[in-house]
Amino acid sequence: MKKSLGPRTLAYPTPVWVVGSYDKEGQPNIMTIAWGGICCSQPPCVTVSLRKATYSYGNIMERKAYTVSIPSVRHLREADYAGIYSGRNEDKFAATGLTAVRSALVDAPYVQEFPMVIECRLLQALDLGLHTLFIGEIMDIKADEALLGADGMPDIAGLAPFVFIPTEHAYYQVGEMVGKAFEAGRKEG
Amino acid sequence: MKKSLGPRTLAYPTPVWVVGSYDKEGQPNIMTIAWGGICCSQPPCVTVSLRKATYSYGNIMERKAYTVSIPSVRHLREADYAGIYSGRNEDKFAATGLTAVRSALVDAPYVQEFPMVIECRLLQALDLGLHTLFIGEIMDIKADEALLGADGMPDIAGLAPFVFIPTEHAYYQVGEMVGKAFEAGRKEG
């Protein structure tokens, strides 16, 4: 028997992504978001949603670019910090000790210490209400060389990803592999 | 040192969501997707991206509605199945033994056996290339009554969520809690 919880944003899991942007003065900023996801395979695109009140919103509208740096659990504290405070009042790179790297492909910075980063040029900004949905074309994905395996892909143990679960306002580590996609549900014979 | 992996859809984690829709004849269909996410808090909205070639694409365009049923690891096989085969050739509810429930709020069915479901009315369909981004307003979220705790929220152990990791084409269980959001990164004092 199912019970109604009302029209709310309780869908899970959601990512913990750190969005990088430059302000008018070229000061790098980061902001952590959970409202986002991949939205197209060709061209490869990814969405992030931001409130218009955020400092990053103005940056992305002006620079037409953003990055997504994906933290490991090792960076949980820094990622949570970047979601609480505003770049309007804080130099979040200085406060966290994280290093801003200027992307060579788009007009935005990424976080050097995080194991994987996505560089995006803004394709569209859709005002949906409280949030604006940014659609960005993925110009490149970069990962720490030390984490790459024989297949050229980063090792999941090194990435050590975690997710945000909205029903609990909590972060959960990604645990054990439980199945291979496009195989587990194949018909037999 | 970071290495370029090229412009690809490797962002993680991504959800494993089972999208429900009706076809012209009123036959319920499900399709598993990983390209999606919450995109607005007010009104609460969620995106799912589908290729135009899928059966569900036509259903959603016609019915202007869809549901998202979130499987637990107990339903991994059924969820993977629904992402491999097409509703054009298969009755996926019959094949998996899952039960279609007609939503009372939107013109789409959801999966009774999955612990949490989201009912959406279509707000926008954006053609991005290979995929079309559907933006749906969340009309209600429903969860299994047996999983609800004292706070009225479903218990994470009962939800038993899992995620899709694109770099490995694999499903990973959500493991241990590693921090509280909006707390772990707070400045001290």
Roughly how many Å is the radius of gyration of chain A? 17 Å
Element string of chain A (H = helix, E = strand): EEEEEHEHHEEEEHEE
Output mean pLDDT of chain A.
97
CATH topology of chain A: Pnp Oxidase, Chain A
Tally of strands of chain A: 12
Query: Can you summarize the main beta sheet of chain A?
Result: 7 strands, antiparallel
Oligomer: homodimer
What would you call the structural class of chain A?
mainly beta
Largest two-chain interface: A-B, 101 and 100 residues
Helical content of chain A stands at: 10-25%
User: For the terminal residues of chain A, how far apart are their CA atoms?
Assistant: 36 Å
Structure report:
The structure is a homodimer of 189-residue chains. Chain A has helices spanning 55-63, 76-84, 92-96, 156-159; strands at 2-6, 17-22, 28-33, 36-41, 44-51, 65-70, 100-102, 109-111, 116-127, 131-144, 162-165, 170-180. By secondary structure, chain A is mostly beta strands. In chain A, strand 4 (36-41) and strand 5 form a beta hairpin. Chain A starts with a strand and ends in a 9-residue tail after the last strand. At the A-B interface, strand 1, strand 4, strand 5, helix 2 and strand 9 of A face strand 1, strand 4, strand 5, helix 2 and strand 9 of B. Strand 1 of chain A pairs antiparallel with strand 10 (131-144) of chain B, so a sheet runs across the interface.
Record keyword descriptors for this entry:
189 residues, seven-stranded antiparallel beta sheet, two-stranded antiparallel sheet, mainly beta, homodimer, Pnp Oxidase, Chain A, globular
